[in-house]
Structure prediction request, 115 residues.
Amino acid sequence: EVQLVESGGGLVQAGGSLRLSCVASGFTFDDYVIGWFRQAPGKEREGISCISSNNGRTTYADSVKGRFTISRNNAKGTVYLQMNNLKPEDTAVYYCNTDPPQFHWGQGTQVTVSS
Prediction:
């Protein structure tokens, strides 16, 4: 059974930082591009960053470029998202999945940025 378990969210003031983690199990983690997605209240879920497995190539949405850094540890089946200089518009539930998404979503982790 595939499991995606996100953690590390919380309440932070604008300009602060958080580091999210996602532990994946039940599939061959190394075989997939892994992405971080987020869903803000009243909005559709959007992809914000992804990382390949073989060469570690990363991509970022314009909204987070220069502030967020994605990384992965294939041995641990874990993907991370370092989020710096957080803004109120980053408030959302954050999820990980393959990119494009192929598995059921986990519960996500709530990030709330106060102004």
Summary: The chain has a mean pLDDT of 97.
